[in-house]
UniProtKB/TrEMBL annotation:
Pfam families documented for this protein: FHA
PANTHER family referenced in this protein's UniProt entry, alphabetically: NUCLEAR INHIBITOR OF PROTEIN PHOSPHATASE-1
Descriptive protein name: FHA domain-containing protein
Gene3D superfamilies per the UniProt record, alphabetical: 2.60.200.20
FHA domain residues: 17-66
Gene source species: Massilia atriviolacea
InterPro entries in the record: Cell_Proc_Reg/RNA_Proc (IPR050923), FHA_dom (IPR000253), SMAD_FHA_dom_sf (IPR008984)
CDD domains documented for this protein: FHA (cd00060)
UniProt cross-references to SUPFAM superfamilies, sorted A to Z: SMAD/FHA domain
Amino acid sequence: MRDKQVIQEVELDKDRMTLGRKVHNDIVIAHAAVSGEHAVLTLMMDGVCLEDQGSTNGTYLNGQRISRCMLEDHDVVTVGKCQFEFHAGPRAHKSVTPAGAGATIATISVRTGPNAGKVLSLDKPVSTLGRPGVQVAAITRQGDAYFFSHVDGQRAPLVNGRPVGKTAQRLADGDAIELAGVNMVFAHTAG
């Protein structure tokens, strides 16, 4: 929005979307008060994280300057002279079988923490889990195989009690994952 007029609506349709003045960003804001790479929006299991990328004029959430935060429905984000109102729509986690592949979709069952009992379908090419600034991991789907990798945080997450190394680790049915103090279980039976 600009001067309370809606200029554009943007659907957060990727796991990670960049926002800034330069044309390579997912959301381009052509205004001098906006940095070239101003902020990043990351879809997490429990919502959307907004992170300022060291912008000159800052990123504001409901009038307060932030470096990183989780967005809630109807939050107002200010970047330069533009304002964005965040609308948390339903997050669809559909189990889709690729045509002719006979593949099954893996899931992550959350065992502890505020999301205990939730089950996340890993139906996207990359699913991001964790807490920004604490510990973040990605699960990448390649055909019928799933690979776990450490993305952010000083300590590596654990798979079956062992720290994940620098290379992606293939997950197996029943693997126990500990990420940002939360215990989860990976479930996948090949079709």
